[in-house]
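Title: Prediction job returns without error message
Component: structure pipeline
Severity: low
Priority: P3
Assignee: unassigned

Description:
Job completed but the reporter wants confirmation the result is attached to the right record. Sequence as submitted:
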Amino acid sequence: MADSIQKAAGAGVKITLGGKEYDLKPYTVGDFIALREHITSGRIRAFAASSAEVSGSERVQVLTRLAEGMYSEYDMFAEAASPSGTLFLLWRRLRKTDPSLTLDDVSALVESDKTWNLEEISAITKELTKADEPPADPPAAAIS
């Protein structure tokens, strides 16, 4: 991912979403840091909500591991390309033009605007990151 981030450059792209024009600049390192934090907090919330039967010590171990962010570059690439990651990164860029937008607002805009679909937004995400294709297989460290 470091190479992909370094390749992110240029003027970005302009899109019209929900009748408003947005100038989407290339993603920044801060966007990917925020995505990592978003992923981590989401995984912690999901585990906490569904782990009542997990013993105290095991629960602490899992929560600690989740909080440490045990994610590889491959995981980040996959998350950025996922529907939720794509929407999150799009929201980060749209907020530069309209700081009042929430993540739910962007999701609703994309769902209500019939001129866009997630595939097209994913293509914009790829353009803004100048991303290479992810590795065919995750490295061994990502599997363990």
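Comment from assignee: result matches the submitted record. The mean pLDDT is 74.
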